[in-house]
Amino acid sequence: PSVRPSGRKTPGTSVPSAKLLLQMGFIRTDQARFREANTLFEQALSTATSTGDQASIAAALIELGVVCQHMAKYAEAEEHLTRAQDIFTGIGDELGQADALQMIGRTYYSQSKFAEAERSYTEARNIFARHGHAQGQAMTLRALGNILYQRSQYSKAEEFYNEAIDICARIGNDMGHADTLLRLGQLFSTQSQYAKAEKSFQKALEKYSRIGHNLGRADVISELAEVYRMQGLSTKAAPLYAQAREIYVQFGDPERAATCSHWLDVLSKEGDLSITSPSVPGNDDVPSPTD
pLDDT digits over 231-263, tens only? Predict the structure, then answer.
């Protein structure tokens, strides 16, 4: 959420700067090495505190909150993020404050505390809108749409998703665009609006394929399989489940791979099913996770 600074060692000392420690932590977070990232962010916090660098203190607290979210340590995440919000408020950094509020909202959402999440996301959205920060607006709109979806307020959720999609299209944020199309397709599928769901999923699949996001592709492909299965189209669903399972296996996600296997087993009992993959975008040469 925060701007990732370029770091270097502080002149005249072998001690890494807070910014360098933050950069090192970002890399570990991206690699899902969360314990190592946590240690580096704590070191960054200590270094920034010793020099009185308030912006770096807040940045370290934000990233500690993110790591704690990944490790489901929600109370610690909320504590770190609230401290970061207070610091950003104190130094007059409204966009930093919005970043913190957005991450606080995510912490609440992960615990199904939807009313609290809605308040945080709404406050963040208002700040982003005031500053004309389109990407922040799109992210908070999608998050608010997710809350409305959880409350079964489908029409309002659809409005928020479409508004987020329009912003992502305007600023060229393909990842955010694809993520929101995926959520919109799930919303339609939940309401048994399968034609609309398929259309949204196909658009999301095209975008994930264009940017090479194979886990996103797997999620959409499995959702498309579900749409076909719910309509009794087993011969269309089975090969998609098989394709999604292959990607999940390659990326080390046994739980979702097992879900695909389960539905393949169910469908196989309904008849002789081919698992030859149909023509979907990006169907060739799925890279390994280390590529």
Answer: 999 999 999 999 999 999 999 899 999 999 999
pTM: predicted TM-score of the whole model, two decimal places:
0.84
Q: How far apart are CA 136 and CA 152, in angstroms?
A: 24
Are 143 and 121 in contact, with CB atoms under 8 Å apart?
A: yes
Per-residue DSSP letters for 4-50?
-----BPTT-SSBPHHHHHHHHHHHHHTT-HHHHHHHHHHHHHHHHH
CB distance 234 to 270 below 8 Å: yes
The answer to whether 38 and 22 are in contact (CB under 8 A) is: no
Q: Which residues pair with 16 in a beta bridge?
A: 9
Q: Which of 85-89, 147-151, 260-264, 266-270 has the lowest mean pLDDT?
A: 266-270
Between helix 214-230 and helix 254-268 the angle, nearest 10°, is 30
CB 17 within 8 A of CB 25: no
Please state, in angstroms and rounded to a whole number, the distance separating the CA atoms of residues 101 and 154: 25
Rounded Cα gap, residues 176 and 187, in angstroms: 17
